[in-house]
Amino acid sequence: MLFMKHIEVVDVHVGGDLHRIVLGGIAELPGSSVLEKMSYLRAHADGLRRILLHEPRGGHPSLFADLVVQPGTPGADAGFIIMELMGYPLISGTNTMSTVIALLETGRLTMTEGTNQVVLEAPGGLIDVTAECENGKVTSVTYKANTPTFVAASDLVVDMPSRGVVRYDIVWSGAFYPVIRAADVGFDLIREEEEDIVSFSKSFIEAVNQLPRPVHPVFGEEGPISFVVYAGELQTGEDDSSSCRVCCYESPRNSVCRAPAGVPSTSVLVNLVNKGLLDLGECVRTVSIFGTSLQANITRKLDYHGKDGFEAMVTGSGWITSKSQIVVDFSDPLTPQEGLEEILN
């Protein structure tokens, strides 16, 4: 037991995407902001991300992790660092929802019956969250990121040997997301296409990463493209409600999200608004290939460093699936060594 430490985690799923929320066992990281703390973790202690997400302790096909930290911005209730197999996104929707659910339902933040307002500090900025609560349970979560989403480039093309010319747009929403109209590449975004979507996406990312990368006006170069988002056709139901299928692929996990996911949903809707195909304020139900869904709408357009920036609100629900301790035993050869021991309590 001398070499063993424990990391306290709560697992929460939103739409089938599983989020491992770290609530204890990690010392406070250096840095005056969550962005600085994330940068420290990425540079000096990436072993935490690896032990949470990689086999043998991880391995779920749609697993993410979030480390709760002290915020650096006055008025924020908590900070959180998002960790995925591809690295460290600056903003994430379902990670936001899951973190708020874990904080409220475990009592880390005070829950009151009815509407609860929470402000989280992500590496990419503040996120305003409204959580509806009943009988000690968070029944729904709505978030609004204060860092705008924007279309970085439109009507791009890449020549893929197996598929010919593929057209796409790039939208920034916490990371850079290529957005492809699903019908253009022959997808209906149904469960039976999962294997084909994964295969196509892997080839697409390899091709796109040979091209010049977009640069964020504030956060700068963000590295290789790691995601592909597929947008279905906008549908109108008998009750005049709107829906749209959304599928997000992530590399190097080489799988698709179980949920339509928050920032991919935002990316699709912002792209539609930018093309004049969707009105500001129109609520759209985004649906994954697994049938799970979120509600999203683009609420405001504003100038963002010379580009049209957009703010969005996304609503979903989540459920705690487990509360556990991850055992860190450095005699285990499969325990990551990258700075992990230095940040354990």
UniProtKB/TrEMBL annotation:
InterPro entries: Pro_racemase_fam. One of its GO terms (molecular function) is 4-hydroxyproline epimerase activity. Pfam families: Pro_racemase (PF05544). Belongs to the proline racemase family. This is Proline racemase. It comes from Oceanimonas doudoroffii.
